[in-house]
Amino acid sequence: MHTPEFVTKPRSHTVWEKQCVRLHCTISGWPEPRVVWYKNNVSIDPMSKPGKYKLESSYNVHSLEINRCDFDDTAQYRVSAMNSKGENSAFASVVVKRFKGEFDESLPSPRLPPCLEYGVTFETHIVEKFGVSFGREGETLSLGCSVIIYPSLQRFQPEIEWYRDDKLLVPSKWVQTHWSGDRATLTLTHLNKEDEGLYTLRVITKSSFETHSAYVFVRDADAEVAGAPGAPLDVHCQDANKDYVIVTWKQPAVDGGSAILGYFVDRCEVGTTHWAQCNDTPVKFARFPVTGLVEGRSYVFRVRAVNKAGMSHPSRVSESVAAMDPADRTRKGASAPWTGQIIVTEEEPVEGVVPGRPRDLTVIEATKNYVVLSWKPPGDKGHEGVMYYVEKCVSGTDSWQRVNTEIPVKSPRFALFDLAEGKSYCFRVRCCNSAGVGEPSDPTEATTVGDKLDIPSAPGRVVPTRNTDTSVVVSWEGSREAKELVGYYIEDSIVGSNSWEPCNNKPVKGTRFVCHGLTTGESYVFRVRAVNAAGISEFSQESEAIEVKAAIASPAPPYGINVLECVRDSMVLAWKQPTFIGGADITGYFVDYREVIGGVPGKWHEANIRSVSERAYRVSELKENMLYQFQVRAANMAGVGIPSLPSETFKCEEWTIAVPGPPHDLQVQEVRKNSLVLLWKPPVYQGRDVVNGYYIDIKEAEAEFEMWRGVNEKATNKTFMKIKDLKEGESYVFRVRAQNKAGVGKASEPTEPVEAVTKPGTAEIVVNVDDDGVISLNFECSNLNADSKFVWSKNYVEMTEPERMTLETKGSKSKAIFNTPSEDDLGIYSCFVTHTDGASASYTLSEEALKELLKVSHDHKFPIIPLKTELAVELLEKGRVRFWLQAEKISANGKVEYVFNDNMISQGEKYKMNFDKNTGIIEMFMESLGKEDEGTFTFQLQDGKATNQSSLVLIGDVFKQLQKESEFQRKEWHRKQGPHFVEYLGYEVTPECCVRLKCKVGNMKKDSVALWYKDGREVKVNEKLDFSEGVLTLEITQISKKDAGIYEVVLKDDRGKDTSTLNLTDQGFKELMNQVFSVIANSSTPLKIQSTEEGIRLYSFVSYYNDELHVTWHHKDAAIAFTERIKSGVVGEQLWLQISEPTEKDKGKYAIEFFDGKGGLRRTVELAGQAFDDAYAEFQRLKAAAIAERNRARVAGGLPDVVTIQEGKALNLTCNISGDPVPEVTWLKNEREMVSDDHYILKFESGKFASFTITSVNTSDSGKYSILVKNKYGTESGDFTVSVFMPDEEPGKKK
């Protein structure tokens, strides 16, 4: 049994693209070794790319075949052989090259060299840039920019490079890059905190390069256990040796709310998926030596943090590292590059010389877990490689122990474990080779086992400064005397929240950091901690609070310089406000000018020493007919900005044109989805006459110059205009032209593009009238900043010190209060908020609106208690009278006075008052009304200064009717004390045309009786009375005239009686019958058409027919006069109209009309066209069929079914025959026609009688006989059977 050995090692190859390459080796060993092939230390799985790799093993010969090689196959390949006795590996490199010349279209596009066109200068612009981005662990994040390169040459492609924290990124499973020809994209496929940092895109051309940078923040993923810490990050491997690796990492910024107890390190062998925990107890130091590795194998590592709540997610895995002696790793080399030579050298054996002493032995790292030694090889090490033995002894003794007794190490570094914490040790090293072991090195100084690295001190003063609307720059003093500092973590907290959030999840090494993702307008405090391998420091002191808003900077340069007026020695300039004002109001502008002589500009001169606040300025003391250029600088509290670009060259000469110059200072306010307001200032140069109007032009921002069109056909004399009918989402530009009597002048400079859209949060001016009647205009803005101001204007002229209004602003709200509103205040009021995205609105105070507001103001000053209802009267039970009204709202201090005919009345025997202040209901009750109560009743209300009253006039007929109704209600109440009718006797007609007399009764007892009468005679009711339902009924079925009469119901018991009468005579009975007729009519079915043998019948069905029902038939809207040919009638519930032998005159619209005493009901049918033709054809068919049925040939009777007769007898049968014309008669025997002869005598007499005679019957006459009669209308037959028997046989038996 022995470890695997390579008899033949694999050989390196350089091949052309698309060729195949085969690596093979011969391996010996027992037990038979397991062989695994690796590409760049990643095991090769043939199934992952079918057809790409082919592995074979036969008789100790092992091979790897790579088909159709491409660039990705350029790598270092390793074959590993392992059995129970050990492992051995061999390496070979494969380099894939591409043919020079034409490229295969199926291959990736080649990387072309930079364009070498002589004299070409490329301009590079990065647009659609990515900004500060936020992601969460596990998510995918893409960054991208569009790149414009001019001139665009198809054969030239720029170099695209991506950097993170100034380190070049290369594609991997974590990072993917893409260049489409005009857009560069970087995709982070699975975010981890290692991906946090400053990302930079660099676009490199022959001429220059352009860059763009932005920060990417990665937040922790949600913990699996609430309160668990964040995952560690930046796991790396250091000092890898044959059996150990030192793993380092960085602590997370988030501890989950409780201190991190330590970290667990996990390892996984490359090519497997099994993770093994390396330490049993958590370690606090952010470095840990992992031992027990198998030499020659590759491993990856990860780290997990733990606190009292639980375990964090694992970190991102480290890069793979091989467990081997560093000297071997150096000799083997890293992965081969894709070009160049691969040189494999082997040392030739020479005569051995004992090596000398190692030099410069030092302890480079000491912790409580391990000590790392480092030294230099001896100067006289002989001609062969040397190895080393490490020895230790306790300080103060001379007892040296060899640490690596079995196998000497080849690397001049070594880590010692299992040292006693707190003890002091000395160390020394010996060299050895085949010639022997050399002398020991000088021992190290005494080293005490323990952590030599201290946790850094807390950082110093933290100073936040404003940056943008969502970010703050945080600076701090670094930790003093901090060793091996990894970086700093910054946290923020909204003032008063006591909740801290990390600003970064990856330590930053500087002492300045931009914290992004903050809320505009909120105040924050910040604190900082330092990090090294020993741990995280205490927090610094909290910074001062700072409000998040944009920092103040000097403004950007103005632009759009143009001339408004020119005279012999001066020019009036105008310009546009800078696009960026620096976060503070612009305090003024400075203008410079210079002469241009012969196309060569001179030196700049200041035109104004003091700043000017307007965006227009007259530059004086110029020279006539000279050419000048101008530049303008804007200033704010942060300073003076850089100057604008030089203007066009203008000639100083006096304008003599008749028309006015251009208006200037165009501004846009109140932008909405379909309208906006345009403001401008009049031209400085008036022309030969004063300006008398303006024209506004508009065009889409992207439209050509020729697309300018006018907004107003008639010139406006105002310097503002509301432009309507805009298309939502479209961007527009505007310009203004002034006119005088001489004509229309030059157009102003166009505005910047304005998109017609109503921004979220847009507010309008609200008119309010308070409780004191004060009228005010109110405007609220939600996106204010500290420098914002509300600017109120009337007719778009700012009201700086208004006499008729008072302006008040509190927080985000501002109001303009009218002091004494009158017609002098009519106009357009607008409010504009500075330092916002254009928050503005307006309100037009018209004459009608002012009148309405003054009315509301008067009502508020002199309030009236609002009433839900005016004073009203109603009758209650027993005829009591209730006067009442209801106020909408009244306080507990409200009072009421009751007045009758101008006299106060109060609570007493006659009047009862009630005032419910919760509901606002005021009531007054009277038991009855007398003649003295005729007059006017008034309720007078008072609640503070608010008053109201309501009156009710009860005189004349109104009073008499109320008094009569009150008396009636009183009597009704007394009636209802005994059995009484709730509903008096009436009737209803059911759908079945039954008449049901009914009444509803109440207050009945068991001994109460109800008696029915007709014409004074009692009617016995079959059904038992049931008073529980309270309804008494009497049904009359099939009503007729005999049922007419006067019906009466009497209720009585010991408490009294009540009577109800129903008159069903004369008119009453007539109305009842009309209702019956109406039910019958409504039950009728639509008219149908039916053909008969006599003609055509029209009919309708009703649910019930009454003989009193009056029905009229109509033809063509005229009543039908009935004749023998046209008849009507009733059969059961069918009403019909029979038209015999119909003709063309019978066509038309037919109707049946039911009379019910009102409008009646008519059913119609159209007997014409196809309907008539179909009915007439069916009539003809039925008529012919009837005639045929009557006249067809028939055998009327006389023939038996069976005749049994004795032989020798005579048989005579006769039957009746009918039919017109006279039928033909044929006799058959056994389906064969018979002929009359002496034996068979066949006769047909008088056309009615047919006889059949057999003169002497014999046995041959037995059989089936038939008579067949036939005429043109039909055929019929009669059958009979003749059975002949011998005299000595019994009848019924066949012979």
UniProtKB/TrEMBL annotation:
Protein localization: Cytoplasm
The UniProt record lists the keyword Phosphoprotein: yes
Gene3D superfamilies: Immunoglobulins
GO biological process: sarcomere organization
Domain Fibronectin type-III: 231-326, 357-451, 458-551, 557-655, 662-761
Domain Ig-like: 4-95, 110-217, 760-846, 979-1065, 1205-1283
GO cellular component terms attached to this protein's record: M band; myosin filament
Pfam families the UniProt entry points to: fn3, I-set
GO molecular function: identical protein binding; structural molecule activity
Keywords, comma-separated and alphabetical: Cytoplasm, Immunoglobulin domain, Muscle protein, Phosphoprotein, Repeat, Thick filament
Listed PROSITE patterns: FN3, IG_LIKE
Stated name of the protein: Myomesin-1
Organism: Culter alburnus
